[in-house]
């Protein structure tokens, strides 16, 4: 009997019909999606805590719905990275290097919060869209499906937030 069966599991070859180079490229792209999603999650949660003004209740509740959805998405993206055979990034320093969304240092007013969240959702959509060609070429339907779902959510959320700015 093996002393540490997990060592064998970690070194076991993955044969899911996607070449290793393609799995690596897809996982690297998903690392960026994960980092952008985490950055947007943090920003949305912070805005939920700190929003003020006449739209407080509406925005406070809406931001909670949005950060809850983003929190669930983090797990889905990270688990897809793991299924492809690569570790998912999980530290602030890794996310900072990988994310295209910059953190907010202060507490902007409600209108600026909305504007930043529109930009954040659009950024995640752009990041996800960059992974799509590699996933499609590799015949990676689970990643393509995940990206499609994420794109639908981010584009719809950006539209709804943008509508509040008009």
TrEMBL record:
Which residue ranges does the record assign to the Ferritin/DPS domain? 28-166
Q: Which GO molecular function annotations are given, in alphabetical order? A: DNA binding; ferric iron binding; oxidoreductase activity, acting on metal ions
Would the keyword DNA-binding turn up in this protein's UniProt record?
yes
**What InterPro entries would the database entry show?**
DPS_DNA-bd, DPS_DNA-bd_CS, Ferritin-like, Ferritin-like_SF, Ferritin_DPS_dom
Please, which domain of life does this record's source organism belong to?
Bacteria
UniProt keywords, alphabetically: DNA-binding
User: What sections of the sequence does the record tag as coiled-coil?
Assistant: none
Q: Which family does it belong to?
A: Belongs to the Dps family.
The protein in question is named DNA-binding ferritin-like protein
Annotated source species: Azospirillum baldaniorum
């Amino acid at each position: 009997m093996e002393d540490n069966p997990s060592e064998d599991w970690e070194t076991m070859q993955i044969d899911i019909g996607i070449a290793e180079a393609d799995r690596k490229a897809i996982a690297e792209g998903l690392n960026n999606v994960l980092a952008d999603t985490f950055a947007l999650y943090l920003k949305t949660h912070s805005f939920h805590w700190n929003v003020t003004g006449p739209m407080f209740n509406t925005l406070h509740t809406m931001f909670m719905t949005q950060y809850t959805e983003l929190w669930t998405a983090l797990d889905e993206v990270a688990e897809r990275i793991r299924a492809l055979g690569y570790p998912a990034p999980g530290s602030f320093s890794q996310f900072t290097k990988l994310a295209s969304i910059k953190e907010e240092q202060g507490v902007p007013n409600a209108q600026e919060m909305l504007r930043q969240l529109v930009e954040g959702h659009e950024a995640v959509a752009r990041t996800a869209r960059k992974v799509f060609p590699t996933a499609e070429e590799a015949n990676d339907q689970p990643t393509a499906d995940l990206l499609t779902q994420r794109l639908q959510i981010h584009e719809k959320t950006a539209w709804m937030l943008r509508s509040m700015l008009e």
